[in-house]
Amino acid sequence: MSPVEIGTVSVLAIVALIYLGVYIPIALTVVSFVSIWLMRDNFDLAMNLLKIAVGDSVMEYTFATVPLFTFMGLIVSKAGLGNDIYEVMSSGFRRVKGGIGMATVGANAVFAAVTGSSIASASVFAKVSVPQMLHYGYNPRFAVGVVAGSSVLGMIIPPSAMLIIYSFVAEQSVGEMFLAGVVPGLMLAVAYVASIWTMGKFWPSFVGGRPADGYEWLSWSEIASKTLPTLSLIFIVLGGIYTGWMTPVEAGAAGSLAGLLIAMLRGRMSLKGFWEALIETGHISAAILFLITAASIYSRMLGLAGLPNELSDMLVGNDYGFVTIMVVYILLMLVLGTLLDTASIILIVVPLFLPLIEPMGLSLVWFGIITVVGAEIGLLTPPLGISCFVIKATLNDSRISLKDVFMGALPFAAVMLIVLILLIRFPALSLAILN
């Protein structure tokens, strides 16, 4: 077999192994190692490239953003800031048709800006928002669909773990990726709110619900006390990066310290809770480091196989332009999204398409936003919509099936696709803050 044929078979083998349940980094590392060995018929070369991949991953200074932002997200969740933001948003939207759903989107957008985790958002708001919506007569499918749809905001609004992973794979600045995610994240949140209003107007049976009569508005002092901690964290992290006062690593450290102080002042942080957050941070950070190491050896294998160049020559030889390449790319991510998680898609697909995008003079930061948004649609689609599974497991309500969660999330997946098309058509939307 030629190197190109070995490279092609290896990519297919990786996808198959992950789908069969093999741990993603193991699948990437083992298949890439064996492929390099077969292509060069040199075990020592394959071993040396593996050592280089491990060394490069561990020595990256910007990798420190992963444990710092992970720790900050865990602390913020323990501090109960998600509940507070939801109460404030709910107070303002309750009397609007679909208002609690709009409040959930708004709260998720703010919560995402301090956690960067769609899984955390899905877990928190499944407990907080869904019972409220069911209490006021909302359609169960709509209730779980709103939480599933808005939970993906945690993967595009910084600090996002997926943006960090992409920055390593594409060798882009973590800070620039964070700033580029702000406008698309807010666009998606606004699009969700607009879609809820539209569904309430033209598809009321899907939304359901009744006005929250007798509900008392929060006072300004209550609103301030519940929002200032979260807003201060957003100001410290994103403000520090945007103004250039802090690097992403320093912003993560400052945000972690501020989050810890807030949790302690609110009496939400015990020594046991602090230790649990540290242990979980270690587990998550180790898993992400393993992913990045595996992606590094995988990228080297693709380079040796010449597969990206072969793909580029094939597309150029057939006179495929920008539109065709992007259509192929998005369709590939949507198909893989039904089988694989977001990190797997980024690690497998991005190294193949980067050699196509760079010669076209397109921004790799913009391409990262497109990649993350496109891959995130997979969080809402069967059979492996992770956010949907998390919501189902968190609710543990026999009245709501997994099918209900997926069907409820379907309209929001469609909204994501529309926003993705807009981001592709107008790259300036992703680069607005950077320019």
TrEMBL record:
Part of the tripartite ATP-independent periplasmic (TRAP) transport system. The complex comprises the extracytoplasmic solute receptor protein and the two transmembrane proteins. The chain crosses the membrane at residues 12-38, 58-77, 98-122, 142-166, 178-197, 245-265, 277-299, 320-353, 365-391, 412-434. Belongs to the TRAP transporter large permease family. It is found in: Cell inner membrane. The keyword Transferase does not apply. It comes from the Bacteria. It comes from Roseibium polysiphoniae. This is TRAP transporter large permease protein. Its main location: membrane. It is a multi-pass membrane protein. The keyword Phosphoprotein does not apply. Residues 12-429 form the TRAP C4-dicarboxylate transport system permease DctM subunit domain. NCBIfam families: dctM. Keywords: Cell inner membrane, Cell membrane, Membrane, Transmembrane, Transmembrane helix, Transport.
